[in-house]
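Inputs:
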Amino acid sequence: MTEPAERPAADETVPAGVQSPNGTGPVGDPPPLVTPPADTVPGEVVLRLTDVVKTFPGVRALDGVQLEVRAGEVHCLLGQNGAGKSTLIKVLSGAHQPDSGQVEWLGEPVSFGNPQAAMKAGIATIYQELDLVEDLSVAENAFLGHEPRQLGFVRRGYMARQTREILARLGHPEIPPRRMVRSLPSAGKQIVSMARALSHEARLIIMDEPSAVLAHDEVGNLFRIIRELTAQGIAVIYISHRMEEIREIGDRVTVLKDGRTTAANLPARSTPTRDLVSRMTGRTIEYVFPDRPAETPAAEKLLEVRELSREGEFADVSLTVHAGEIVGIAGLVGSGRSELLETIFGARRASTGTVSMAGRQVRPGSVGAAVRAGMGMAPEERKSQALLLGEPIYRNVTLATFTRWARLGFTDAGRERAEANEVADRLELRPLDVRRPVRTLSGGNQQKVVVGRWLLGGTKLLLLDEPTRGVDVGARAELYQVIRALAARGVGVLLVSSEVPEVLGLADRVLVMREGRVVHEAPAGELDEDTVLDLVMAGSLMEGAPA
Amino acid sequence: MTERTETAAPAGAAPPADRPSPVSPAPAGAPVHKGAGTPGNGTGRWSGDAGESFRRNLGLVGVLVVLIVIGIVTRPDLYSDMNWVGDNIMSILTLASVVGVVTVGMTFVIIGGGIDLSVGAIVALAGVWSTTVATQSYGAGGMIFTAVVVAVCVGLVNGFLISYGRLVPFIATLAMLVAARGLAAEISDKQTQVSNNATINGIASNDVLGIPVLVFILAGVVAAGWVLLNRTTFGRRTVAVGGNPEAARLAGINVRRHSMLLYALSGLCCGIAAIMLTAQANSAQAAMANLYELDAIAAAIIGGTLLSGGRGTIVGSLLGVIIFATITNLFAINGLSTEAQNMVKGGIIVAAVLVQQFRFKSLTQLLARNKLRSTN
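Outputs:
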């Protein structure tokens, strides 16, 4: 498996019916998928997905996915955040059931009702956040749920021997099977996860960003193990954002975008990076962004962050946000962007550095101080971090302000409802009845409630973390309008989003974060999506591409 | 973008005529919804969790009615005497009074996302401390003051350990349960301390307008608890902290301080209960108020308080306490053993929680279905 063979693509099963970007696709899209040149991949097809669709309320997470995996190959899945990779993994591992489409496993159509069924069939998944029981031993974790038993007793000795054998197969005979998993470093834990997969005699191992938890030199070891696994005929689905890894370990690449396969079975080593990126980014949905104001007058500095660091999360971040300005931060999950936002807001305590509002330093590590200084934040996880789902809309809107209208500790429900009504009006919240429980609202309207909370009580700076996650297209455009309108009234906005077009379309100025550092800063107009993606993805896209 | 007519209509535009909308097609910019949400068509169903709580409480009243009917059927001889009926109602309420006061505090703690296993022990400690010879020498005022201060302080210690020491509430209050009873035994030297104060003892024996003072105290605490939960910032914080602590924190609420205050409030209720119980027995001892924590938790849960926090009502808890007292009374007037009575109580706790789960499930299913319908 070295060079792409000159073989004709005849036997290369590119799934039929791979759709072109939908009919309304805007001009300038990459051309619809064509059968890519074949890469020689030995082995029979073990897994084939045809037109798999999975919808959640309000989201079409998978919208016709094609995938073909062969025995002994490393098949890479590429796609931006929200492209549907995670949902796809969950479908494959039996955690979700597809709404339609076919999953063929070893030539037979299958439907896994639960993760156990998938595992039994030989599909093992190694999640990014390893799902090990920390207080059980290595052997107990490897055989969790299917311990070798005799008369109801676990055969501990036998289990340990089997585990030792598997660990040897993985090239790590030095890990003691009876060691507590808690005491292992993360690389060791990953080995245990793989041992679990092998204990099930997995024929397909799905690895979700396995390198994310590893130090640089450990990645090489991971690759060695993957090569040994594939040499034994095991297929691997490898998910990573890091291009150089895909180039190094991958055989073929399938690209997902907006829940669809936009390219299947591209040769991992020889496909030009430009092609891969354009398949990942070519938009089928045009977001409508509000116009930027013609020229921004030199406004006063509102937020000033100086050399802010938090151990292990981000380092030496300096940035400013002016009144009326929208500053966007682009970066992958894990680049430190959400942590940065929470630290500025005082929800986390910085190791070093300062945060100032309008020239005055804000007490670190105190949300109360940040709110008093005029900050407001819409956190990443709307439901778990921002809303009281069972409480009425108006109480959610006034959650940060109800004490201000209270007299002698008694709340003023009438005033609260009136204020909430005004917010609901301004944000075009639907339905308008502010006494409904928040959980009856759609995702977009829930987000409006979270943003609306900070329209009350004179917030000067709004920190938005993934404001449009799980929000449908129509509501997105409205949220963009709301955010722009706020800026027009002099509110500063610091926006974090995984979606590069959102950052580029909405922000006036863009910071790119990678691995905890700001690597680039420029006015949004001077950047395009490809450039930002290059910067976001370890900057290796250029070097990785063959000349 | 063409399909966005429904969701992205510009402000003030007339809503589609074919569906009822709380917003009248008023001219743009006009205050459209004074009184929005006054049920147009079926919006009453969505009047929030308050409606849900109300329905649940109605169900509890139904249970109470059933219990009374059982009483009438099994002892028609007693129920034919109206004087007896009046006395019996008062004895049920008196029976409910002490646990009822403790349950109000417990309800706050549970709504706030915690649990307080130490309430019985706090009652005992406060009771014992307020009946030492030295304390009694300060008179009724001194005894009440001591009971309340001791109980609030113990509550504050609980709260401090949980909020700032980051102990799990279960563990912290379990430790306090053991420790406070130990201290109570130490102070009382394991003796029963007789209360010689006529004012204190009178709390249990006196009536006002034919209603025992203990029942007035219960009513007062319940009323204060209701106002505190539903009308004050303290109550709102309690719901927020218990319902979603992270959201509360990110909205600028001092979650730790508030949790600590909740345990102090529970302590306050225990202090009041200690005086009531001392008055009833004319004495205090380290073993008093045994297992009150379980009665209070059970009553709160039957009353619809969510053990995971964020939801609960004072009225529900009160009904829970009264239901328990009525069962005890039912068994007493029929001359049945307390053993059988405890089994019935256990069954009722399980049944109440099962019914709630079932309701919650059907509610979420209803929501899901409704959502589907509205998106189609």
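Remarks. Confidence is low (pLDDT under 50) at residues 1-39, 539-547 of chain A. The radius of gyration of chain A is 25 Å.
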